[in-house]
Amino acid sequence: MSPPETAVTPPSTDEVDIVIPTIRNLDFLEQWRPFFQPYHLIIVQDGDPSIEIRVPDGYDYELYNRNDIDRILGPKSSCISFKDGACRCFGFLVSKKKYIFTIDDDCFVAKDPNGQEINALAQHIHNLSTPSTPFFFNTLYDPYRAGADFVRGYPFSLREGVPTAISHGLWLNIPDYDAPTQLVKPRERNTRSSRYVDAVMTIPKGTLFPMCAMNLAFDRELIGPAMYFGLMGEGHPIGRYDDMWAGWCAKVTCDHLGLGVKTGLPYLSHSKASNPFVNLKKEYKGLFWQEELIPFFQNVTLPKECTTAQQCYIELSKLVKEKLVTIDPYFEKLSDAMVTWIDAWNELNPSTDGGAMVEVRPSKHK
C-alpha cells in the first residue's frame, strides 16, 4: 500500500523539544508514545508545585514547577503567568533546541481520512524545514509538498520562498471556539469525513491570524524571542488570549523580518471541551479589547534597523505602552513584562560573543 499523504520523515531527536504545560498526570502521552518517546520533553507544571505530576515511564523529560521558575529567573519570573497555559513559554526559554513543538494535555493522535495515524510532530517539522510564500499566494497551497508546484503565473523571482518560522496545526473533534460560539454550538464537532482539509498554506504578509497553542511548532532560532504568551491568568484581567497575543506579535515580527507562517496540516484530536461559562469569565475583556488590538497590530510598522526578533519585540513593547494603555492600564504592565521577557531570554540564551550561561536545573528529570 502506498504511504498516506500525512507520512513524512520524523525529525532528528537533536533538533526538537516538546513543551507541555499541565496541572495533571500526563497519561495522554501513552497514545503519543510511537511518535514522541524518542524526543525530549519540557514539562511546565502550573498551579500547586507540591502536587506530583506523573509522567509515563520511558520518556526523557525535565519538569519545572513555579518554585523552579522563581529560582531560575529571580525577579524576572514576574513575566511568566501563573494558573494559565501561558506558563508554557517558560519551556521556550530553557530549551536549547532549534525547534519547539508545544501541545496541550487534552490532545490526542488523530487519523487522516484513510484511517492512518498522523505524526503531528513530523509534519510540523516538515512544514518548518521547507520555505513559505508570504508575498504571493499559490492557489495549489504549499508548492513544496510532494505532488504540488507553483501554478502558471506565479513569479519566478519569488519561487525560492523564505524561511518558515511558525507551523500552526489544526484540530479534529472539539473546535477551538471562544465562549460565545461554544454556547451557541455546544454539540459541534470537526469530523474526519467532513472537516479534514489535506492542505498546508502560507498566511500572506500583512494578514493576522488567531494562533492556537494546542498544536503549534516554531523555529526557536528565528522567532523564539517573539513567542511570549503575555500576562494571563491569576492576578490579571484576562485569560485565554495568551496564544492570540503571541500570534499577533510573532506574525508582525515575521512580516518585518521576511519570515513565513504556515497553517493547515497536521491535525490532532482535541478531546475535551472546556467550560464555556468559565471561559467567558476569562475572555470577557478580550472579546472587547481584540476589536482595538487587531487594528493596532494591522498598522504596526517596525523600524528597518530592527533585524532580530529581540529588537522587533522591544519596539513592539514601546508601541504597546504608547498606543494601548488608553484601553486599560493592564497594557502598561504587559509592555513592561515584554521587556522583562526579552531580558530573561537574553540571560538564558546569551549570544556567542557574550555572557555566561545561566545554570538551569529542573526539580524533576528523567
TrEMBL record:
Localisation: Golgi apparatus
Enzyme class: isomerase
Keyword Cell wall biogenesis/degradation tagged: yes
UniProt xrefs under InterPro entries: Nucleotide-diphossugar_trans, RGP, RGP_fam
Record GO biological process: cell wall organization; plant-type cell wall organization or biogenesis; UDP-L-arabinose metabolic process
Keyword vocabulary terms for this entry: Cell wall biogenesis/degradation, Glycoprotein, Golgi apparatus, Isomerase
Primary location class: Golgi
Annotated source species: Deinandra increscens subsp. villosa
UniProt-listed Pfam families: RGP
Catalysed reactions listed for this entry: UDP-beta-L-arabinofuranose = UDP-beta-L-arabinopyranose
Coiled coil: none
Family under the similarity heading: Belongs to the RGP family.
Glycosylation sites: R152
The protein's name: UDP-arabinopyranose mutase
Enzyme Commission number(s) of this protein: 5.4.99.30
Functional summary from the UniProt entry: Probable UDP-L-arabinose mutase involved in the biosynthesis of cell wall non-cellulosic polysaccharides.
GO cellular component entries: cytosol; Golgi apparatus; plant-type cell wall
MF (Gene Ontology): UDP-arabinopyranose mutase activity
Superkingdom of source: Eukaryota
